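Record type: monomer structure entry
Structure origin: computed from sequence
Chain ID: A
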Amino acid sequence: MANIKKDSKKKPWAGVFTEETAKGVEEFTESISFDHRLYEFDIQGSWAHAQMLMNQGIITKKEFAEIDAGLREIKHEIELKGKSGDFDKSFEDIHMYIEAELIKKCRETGKKLHTARSRNDQVALDLRLYLRFITEHYVIDQIITFQRTLIGISQENIDTIMPGYTHMQRAQPVTLAHHLLAYVEMFERDKERYKEALERISTLPLGACALSGTTLDIDRETVKKKLRFKHISGNSIDAVSDRDFVIEFISNSSIMMMHLSRMAEELVLWSTKEFSFIKISDAYTTGSSIMPQKKNPDVAELIRGKTGRVYGALVSILTTMKALPLAYNRDMQEDKEPLFDVVNTIKHVLRIINEMFPHIKFNKERMRETAAEGFSLATDLAEYLVTKGMPFREAHEVTGNIVKYCIDKSRSLEKSVDLHDLDLKEFEQFSDLIKDDIYSRLTVETSVKGRKLFGGTGEVEAQIKRLSEQMDMEKKKWRKFWQLW
């Protein structure tokens, strides 16, 4: 038989019920143990709602003053309690806790705050306020900071030549700056996705109530302005049942984590003896419990590992929402733990990658050495032949034959022979279009600097200039934006 608990705390919804809630049900359904982090946003939304009720004559100025003072006092008490908070689970969630505390302080006046409001639109509002804050005040700022770090390192390595890879095989020489700027572009797309999502987050659900709105004369436009939203939900049913903005935030975070994981994978590879491209500071590596010589790139490995955690959150929320009928269903409470876990994860990852990256040393000599090996200038030879009038497909075949000749010669001599090791007579066996000027083309420096097209390896300084100006403008914009807020 269920353990029916006789609770002295009467539920706000208890009017039609004849029995107290079972203790097991309270433990199973509560969310206050994790949604307490929404307290600031719940109070912020409640304050705007109360002011609107006063403006509309639904509550008096005196009653608003009582509610305002009560909410400020509750906020202070929660902060003293600590954000981890030891909250009584009988309150179910942070929204009911704050309301109960307000009623305790303001008595009958406190009971008026929930007029023309449901927990359904209240929760949706709090989540939107929370995600807007996290996106504006942390995620975008941290992405910009990391982009600036990468741009700074790129400025110092414009002439640092390294091998570029396709299929994990050495392909053509590039520069370290060009390689790192590829990640700056990735993070730029991440930043744009978060910024675009802010438009959809910035939709006021308050006023939708449970699902159909209210008969009371409320003013949603005023609340929208008070809370700095751009839009008002156009359908009250959709307003309370929409979690697209949560899914979109986690999706954007998954894509960003994929980019960070790709970078982490390269850091792991580059730090191996086989590559020897980088040395990560001892402060950001760990050792082995059995092998004294080991220095492990655990930070990069954990970034790579935590990506799966964020992907899991995306699958979780999509699965939760995939078969829910309109409008609100309690299943939707399951949006919060995955979301909060994603926020915690990306905050930690962005912080540590920003902290670690300036402490990576690049082995420039090793990078250049490997960039010159493995016939990495074969495409340059083919393009040289094109400038002499040979069709590219023919030039490709001729160059392939020259590479094969080098490989065969290497075997016979038992030492490596590359394109620049051949004399002019050997080249002329394959095409009389090849002249002495070929040797000036067969250097990694010429190869890199010769690709001056927009976005190419020879245009890195211009890329850095464009991106630096863009970062400066954006930083100013966000700083001004936060000051206004």
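Annotation 1: Strands lie at 161-166, 169-175, 203-204, 231-232, 278-280, 360-362.
Annotation 2: Residues 119-156 form the longest helix (38 residues).
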